[in-house]
Amino acid sequence: MRALRDMNLPKFVYEDVPLFLGLIADLFPGLTCQRVCYPTFNDMVEQVITDGGYLVLPNQVDKVIQLYETMMTRHTTMIVGPTSGGKSVILSTLCQAQSRLGLITKLLTLNPKAISVVELYGVLDPNTRDWTDGVLSNIFREANKPTDKKEFRYILFDGDVDALWVENMNSVMDDNKLLTLANGERIRLQSYCSLLFEVGDLQYASPATVSRCGMVFVDPKNLRYAPFWKRWLNRRSKFEQDELQTLYKKYIPPCIELIAEGLLDGRPRKKLKTVVAQTDLNMVLSA
């Protein structure tokens, strides 16, 4: 029961979680299963979040733990979700928490869509047969060099996942753990290295790619705009906080409800149309 719940919950969107928990309750009536706890790691995660000036939210802390657990069983993990969900904070918190506990964690970030496939993987000159490393092949080679230190190295792909470039990574994501370059060279992914993908959605990813990865879905509905507002408000003086909080309660929640949910004073109205799709947080930042 515990494995069924803990391995599937990270993948679900906001609306699917209560449905899944209801099914679990029907399958195992009368049984309760406590969440697996890592006391030392949990405390360090909360400490890192506090030191960063963020609010300690149970959902956010649990997402860090879910990512930690998923990476225990998979060497390739995708953290998926729309903007404003807190993906970057979750990744940064995981790395800092592990580093503070003595397991130095290095995060090597690149945007695979910012360059061409040739620039990403490297190119073999057809005339001279000289090989020139690409950005990824160079990072991959450096990250997988032998080390005597106790550390983790994560290669983070921060950008859209599509078949144009990611299909060449399938042999790394599966059990072979081999990156095969155009010059015939093969580089093995070491046990202290992992691949991470930070992506908004997987609409252009093939089933072959998705099936090879662990999944953690981060839904902005768990976070919304209130934590950002509170963090910003805490930096103001006491006098400003009182005045701004009054204005916030008067204007922000009613306006967001009207625009995003079509509610006015708790009554349903026609949902407003926006020229450019925006999240709650985007609208609060613009206010």
UniProtKB/TrEMBL annotation:
<dbReference type="GO" id="GO:0030286">
    <property type="term" value="C:dynein complex"/>
</dbReference>
<dbReference type="GO" id="GO:0007018">
    <property type="term" value="P:microtubule-based movement"/>
</dbReference>
<protein>
    <recommendedName>
        <fullName>Dynein heavy chain hydrolytic ATP-binding dynein motor region domain-containing protein</fullName>
    </recommendedName>
</protein>
<dbReference type="GO" id="GO:0045505">
    <property type="term" value="F:dynein intermediate chain binding"/>
</dbReference>
<dbReference type="InterPro" id="IPR043157">
    <property type="entry name" value="Dynein_AAA1S"/>
</dbReference>
<feature type="domain" description="Dynein heavy chain hydrolytic ATP-binding dynein motor region">
    <location>
        <begin position="1"/>
        <end position="88"/>
    </location>
</feature>
<dbReference type="InterPro" id="IPR027417">
    <property type="entry name" value="P-loop_NTPase"/>
</dbReference>
<dbReference type="InterPro" id="IPR035699">
    <property type="entry name" value="AAA_6"/>
</dbReference>
<dbReference type="Pfam" id="PF12774">
    <property type="entry name" value="AAA_6"/>
</dbReference>
<dbReference type="GO" id="GO:0005524">
    <property type="term" value="F:ATP binding"/>
</dbReference>
<dbReference type="InterPro" id="IPR026983">
    <property type="entry name" value="DHC"/>
</dbReference>
<dbReference type="GO" id="GO:0051959">
    <property type="term" value="F:dynein light intermediate chain binding"/>
</dbReference>
